Fold this sequence. Notes:
Elements: E1 28-32, E2 38-41, H1 45-51, H2 62-69, E3 72-76, E4 81-86, H3 92-104, E5 111-116, E6 123-125, H4 136-143
Parallel strand pairs: 4-5
Antiparallel strand pairs: 1-2, 1-3, 3-4, 5-6
Helix pairs in contact: 3-4
Amino acid sequence: MAEVIADVFNPDGQKIPGMTAPWAWIRGAVWLLPGGSQIIVPSFHDEWIRQHQDLVPGCANVCDVVLRKGWLSVVSYSQGYVEIMIDSRTNAESVGLCVEHLRQNLDEWRDALVMTMDAEGYIKLAPEDFMDSVSLESRIRGSLMPGTTSN
C-alpha cells in the first residue's frame, strides 16, 4: 500500500484526506487527480462524496465528480483487475491521465476496463498494449463501441 503524504492541501487551503504520492498504485478505490496524486477512498465512492462535500461541493455521485471536477474514478481489484472511469474520450487530459497511470504501474495490473461518461461501452486494455506502436490515447478516443472491447 502506498504511503499517504501528510499535510496535503487543496488550493483553498483545505487538507485533503488520504492523498498519495503521484502514480502510486492503490488496491481499492481512489480518485485519480491531475498530476497523478490520488485520494484514497476507504469505502465506497458515494459514501466518501457525502462525507467530503467540502472537496466536491454539489456532487452527489461518482458521475458528478468525474464530470465536474475532472477526477478519474479508479477501482483496483484483486488479481490485477482495474476499472477506470473518465469524463470523455475526447478529453485529452483525462485520457492522458488514465494512460499514464496505467503506464506507470504496468507491473501492478493485468486487465483494465476504461469507461467514459460520453459513450456507451468500454475499452479493455492489457499491459502488452503499451508495447504496441499505436497510441493508446488514440485507441481510447476512437475505439469505444457499445458492449464491445477493442481487442
